[in-house]
Amino acid sequence: MGLELLENNTYESKKDYIYRMIRKNIIDINLKPGEVMSENDIANTFETSRTPIREAFTRLANEELIEIYPQKGTFVSLIDIRRAQEAKFMRVNLEREIIRQACREFPDDILFQLEANINQQEFCVMKENYITIFDLDNEMHELIYRGCKMGRVWSAIRFVSGDYDRIRTLRLSSDTDWDAIIGDHKNIVSAIKEKDEEKGLKIISEHLTMIDRDVVLLKEKYPEYFKQ
């Protein structure tokens, strides 16, 4: 079990960093659904005691990303389609209202950040770096929520989106039309910039439900990752 680690942000505690890194490895499918997780191995990776690892495990269990069985062990949870559909329902309905607000009024400084984000996504497509595209995709949506002063709503969505996000990771790592995805992102930002509410609502609804078309294929390709 080799965890991929990023730098520790100066503003976060060690326990928050450990939680964030384990969670990211689960979402990125570096820790695969069904995989056994060892407290000792992870503690050695972070050169820490087992206490912050247990705390991270508790948080991840609350998000249903891991399952803890006394006397048996801790496992990365299998992807549950039902939970993913619930997260999608939440996102589609909330994000339509967010886009509606963004197309009416949106701060110029965050619009600039959105345009810079799209440029980075296009670069990552050329490099076929799907993990960074996934992170930039999330950052783009978070910027839109923040621009509408709805940052805590985004945090609430993220809490329930573990399975939805793992499906997105599998989708991006498979044979995916990345240009179409980036095209949607560009059109969403364009709709906000042009204050075109109708265009924004149409694109965001189609964009967030694209995942429906791929779930059956992904279950066939990775049956061991999904809860039956």
From TrEMBL:
SMART domains: FCD, HTH_GNTR
Keyword line: DNA-binding, Transcription, Transcription regulation
Keyword Transcription regulation appears in the UniProt entry: yes
GO molecular function, one term: DNA-binding transcription factor activity
PROSITE patterns with a match to the protein in the record: HTH_GNTR (PS50949)
Lineage: Bacteria, Bacillati, Bacillota, Clostridia, Thermoanaerobacterales
Residue intervals of the HTH gntR-type domain: 12-79
Domain of life where this protein originates: Bacteria
Pfam family, one: FCD
Name this polypeptide is given: Transcriptional regulator, GntR family
